Amino acid sequence: MEKAKWYVVHTFSGYENKVKANIEKAIKNRNMQELIHTVEVPLQQEIEEKNGVKKTVQKKVFPGYVLIKMVMTDDTWYVVRNTRGVTGFVGPDSKPVSLSLEEVKNMGIDTLLLVPTVRVGDAVTLLTGAFENSEGIVKEVHQSKGTVVVSVNGFGREFPVEISMTQIEILI
């Protein structure tokens, strides 16, 4: 099975949260949790001043866009594309083009929020470093540091590798 990747969906202005809610409802109704993993409307905190009073507000990082981590199939494409408020996937001729995790990070999005929960025993692929593209098993999770220790086989023995949660991909 193909691995889940990040895609960008364009929406009508102001419909980002409705699109997110509708896609999440469709995922549940159609039992597509294995194919559509995460639907995100990236937010950032900003300080606004009105009449001399400062307050913190949440602003959309990319108004008119929603990020979705999913396995691209005809069914998932259809569900997302036909969600009320969606105008299409971002890509040439509305053909979806996936983002790399590095591109997601470069957008300034807190990728720890976008990485699915990792648990001890999960099978993962390392996306960077000396063991790039190697598969291993999560042995320890350090939420506070945003890292995991993965046991990777190499040179006939197991190696513990500590790596950022943003530099692994959970295998389904």
Can you describe this structure in just a few lines?
This protein has 172 residues and is α+β, with helices and mostly antiparallel strands. It has helices spanning 16-29, 74-81, 101-106, 111-114; strands at 5-11, 36-40, 43-50, 53-60, 65-70, 86-89, 123-126, 135-142, 147-154, 157-164, 168-170.
Description:
It is a single chain. 19% of the residues lie in helices and 40% in strands. It folds into 2 domains: 5-114, Alpha-Beta Plaits (2-Layer Sandwich), CATH 3.30.70; 123-170, SH3 type barrels. It is built from 4 helices and 11 strands, in the order βαββββαβααβββββ. It starts with a strand and ends with a strand. A 5-stranded antiparallel β-sheet has the order 10-9-8-7-11, with no helix packed on it. β3 (43-50) and β4 form a beta hairpin. It has 172 residues and is an alpha+beta fold.
Distance between the termini: 8 Å
Could you estimate the helical fraction of the residues in percent? 10-25%
CATH topology of the largest domain: Alpha-Beta Plaits
**Structural class estimated from helices and strands:** alpha+beta
Give the second-level CATH assignment, the architecture of the largest domain. Answer: 2-Layer Sandwich
**Major sheet: size, sense and barrel closure?**
5 strands, antiparallel
